[in-house]
Specification:
The structure holds two protein chains of two kinds.
Chain A: H1 10-17, H2 23-35, H3 37-53, E1 59-60, H4 68-75, H5 119-122, H6 127-131, E2 135-136, H7 139-144, E3 149-151, H8 157-172, E4 177-182, E5 188-194, E6 199-205, E7 214-222, E8 225-233, E9 239-242, E10 251-258, E11 271-274
Parallel strand pairs in A: 2-8
Antiparallel strand pairs in A: 3-9, 4-5, 5-6, 6-9, 7-8, 7-10, 10-11
Helix pairs in contact in A: 1-3, 2-3
Chain B: H1 9-17, H2 21-43, H3 46-62, H4 74-92, H5 97-104, E1 110-111, H6 117-132, H7 136-146, H8 152-159, H9 163-183
Classes of the chains: A alpha+beta, B mainly alpha.
Chain lengths: 276, 191
């Protein structure tokens, strides 16, 4: 059925997009939308704008979701073929530890390698990691901890300005910590700032650009475990990350890893520094 | 195989349709905090915001085909779901008092933590400007409806304005914002 022009509920589309109509009106609009791509497109446009509204004003991390929320969601999945249990904590000290439990046949094939390399494939737990008696944790734990890191897109100059402003604001916050990441040969490779609220920014970096198939990965040492704080990309210049819902890391470290990141550090850090 | 982090939102949803839990986890990583923050802001209650977030992601898991990438981006889709569910909840509350309190701080801060935070920070700034540029009556009507969870009739009551006026102010305000944002080049980063 093609509705006549006069039947377009023009005056209701915007309020409908904001869920600001009564149930009867909502139903009428929905009935109309099923047959009217024009009005549907208009509603979609309003919803996009509304979604942008959800980000304003005042960006803070105070209301970040609790780390347990993903667990809850994952537990609720009626999943016939569980592939990856996201919040898997690996114990590298246990010889039987082979990464996230491959509970289904689907996870055995190479096509299901997923976003992270299995910990057992390339694990070389030597040097810094061993001497620091560091346990390692799955990259996905970072998600669960609400820890994540953003890699800036080079085209986003405006975003970079906002980020620089964020970094500057962090430096003005009382109680902020500046962390210097030095190479084993004591060359300074990066400076980061951590706010008391757990937000971190990359202040400067002289880490060399990597090949495309590699990425820098940032780790926080928390309670003796290396927790992935996220991927920094091949040429980190701007980055922000958060350590929400957990204690301040005692140290930060950066490794070079295959693009896509890894569950456990496969190399010694190219730079590390204590969080004073 | 491409890492999940390199996939577009649309590709991720396809993977979700194949029961890839890790794909859902990646969607959550990108958008979970925003979904949670919006619900929290409308509801003013972290526990309820968690419920809504869980529902939104379970729904994506159960019915990934409901997301149509031709009709908009995944973020907007998920936020629309979050908002709609939050508003359902708020309307089902018998006590209005909490909601009235909510109105008083409808400009309270929203917190979120997401992968594209860099872009979001920039967008937030643009949106702040766009909202600030709205005429007061349009801004007020939109905020009461969107963050207060009110119907336009309730907004009309609250503002003592005719319903038709409120409807058109919301429409005009959203359109105005849309143009401002489009002019500012607010768009998602390519991925």
């Amino acid at each position: 059925m093609t509705p006549s022009v006069s039947s377009h509920p023009d005056d209701l589309l915007a309020v409908y997009a904001l869920d600001a109509v009564d149930p009867a009106e909502a139903e009428a609009v929905e009935r109309h939308l099923r047959d009217c791509p024009r009005c549907q497109a208009e509603v979609d446009g309003y919803r996009d704008t509304a979604a942008a509204l959800g980000m304003v004003p005042g960006v803070t991390l105070d209301d970040a979701p609790p780390p347990s929320l993903w667990d809850r969601i994952a537990a609720g999945l009626a999943d016939p073929t569980p592939i990856v249990p996201p919040p898997a904590v690996l114990d590298p000290l246990g010889p039987a530890s082979t990464g996230p439990a491959p509970t289904s046949p689907a996870s055995a094939g190479p096509a299901s390698a997923g976003p992270v390399s299995p910990a057992s494939v390339r694990r070389r737990r030597v040097g810094w990691w061993a001497t620091a008696a560091v346990a390692v944790a799955a990259t996905v734990v970072a998600v669960v901890l609400g820890v994540n890191l953003t890699r800036a897109n080079d085209q986003l100059n405006r975003a970079h300005e906002a980020l620089s402003a964020g970094a500057e604001a962090a430096l003005r916050q009382p109680g902020h910590l500046v962390v210097y990441l030095d190479s084993p040969a004591d060359t300074r490779l990066a400076e980061l700032v951590l706010t008391p609220g757990g937000r971190g920014y990359l202040l400067s970096s002289s880490m060399p650009r990597l090949a495309g198939h590699e990425t820098y990965q940032l780790w926080g040492i928390i309670d003796g475990r290396a927790i992935s704080l996220g991927l920094m990309g091949a040429d980190p210049r701007y980055a922000t990350f958060t350590v929400a819902g957990s204690t301040t890391p005692s140290a930060l470290a950066v490794t070079v890893e295959p693009a896509g990141g890894v569950i456990t550090p496969t190399e010694n850090p190219i730079a590390s520094g204590h969080v004073a | 195989m491409q890492p999940l982090s390199a996939l577009s939102d649309g590709q991720l949803v396809v993977a979700v349709g194949r029961y890839r839990q890790d794909a859902l986890a990646e969607v959550y990583r990108r958008h979970g905090a925003a979904v949670y923050a919006l619900a929290g802001r409308v509801l003013g209650d972290p526990a309820e915001a968690e419920d809504v977030t869980q529902e939104v992601f379970l729904r994506l898991w159960d019915q990934p085909d409901r997301f149509d990438p031709d009709r908009g981006n995944l973020r907007s889709y998920l936020l629309a779901q979050s908002h709609s569910r939050a508003v359902d909840l708020i309307r089902s509350r018998s006590a209005r008092s909490r909601r009235e309190q909510q109105d008083a701080r409808s400009t309270a801060t929203a917190g979120y933590d997401l992968e594209r935070e860099v872009w979001d920070l920039a967008l937030a700034e643009q949106v702040t400007r766009a909202v600030a540029g709205l005429p007061d009556d349009e801004r007020q009507a939109i905020q009461l409806a969107y963050f207060g969870g009110h119907t336009y009739r309730e907004v009309a009551d609250l503002l003592r304005q005719p319903e038709g006026t409120v409807k058109s102010r919301i429409r005009l305000g959203l359109r105005r914002m849309r143009h401002v944002l489009a002019d500012a080049g607010a768009r998602e980063p390519e991925r």
